Amino acid sequence: MVKHFVSQPLPASFMIISMFGFVFSAYAVWPIDMTWGFTLCTVFALWFIAAVYNFTHAPGDKHLDIHGSDAYLRKR
Predict the structure, then answer these.
(1) pLDDT tens, 6-52?
(2) Which residues contact 67 (CB under 8 A, 6 or more apart)?
(3) What is the structure's pLDDT at 5?
(4) Closest among 43, 34, 35 to 14, alpha carbons compared
(5) CA 48 to chain centre
(6) What was the pLDDT predicted at 11?
(7) pTM: predicted TM-score of the whole model, two decimal places
(8) How many domains does the chain have?
(9) Range of the domain at 39
(10) By C-alpha distance, which of 58, 50, 57 is closest to 18?
(11) CA–CA separation, 4 vs 33, rounded Å?
């Protein structure tokens, strides 16, 4: 079992795609087929919620730094 898990932040494009996908689904797909429009709007809304949750709970950049701090690099 995994003892230590660090979540990686999602790219900003994930949130942008979710917003554009929701708007496209609402204006282009919904008038053609209400079932598919509702389904795609729901999926993209869930993507947006996941992106917001990930941005608020993801670790900062200092936790993802694989080379160490700047102070360590200056000592070399």
Answers:
(1) 667 788 899 999 999 999 999 999 999 999 999 999 999 999 999 88
(2) 73
(3) 62
(4) 43
(5) 7
(6) 84
(7) 0.69
(8) 1
(9) 13-56
(10) 50
(11) 45
CA distances from 38 to 11, 14, 45, 48 (A): 26, 20, 10, 15
Angstrom distance (rounded) from CA 55 to CA 6: 13
Give the tokens for residue 37. 């429009």
Is there a domain that residue 6 lies in? no
Question: If DSSP codes are grouped into helix, strand and coil, which group holds residue 43?
Answer: helix
Q: 1-39: string of b/e by CB count within 10 Å (b at 16+)?
A: eeeeeeeeeeeeeebeebeebbeebeeebbeeeeeebee
Question: Hey, what's the torsion of the CAs at 27, 29, 36, 17, to 10 degrees?
Answer: -70
- The answer to whether residue 24 sits within a structural domain is yes
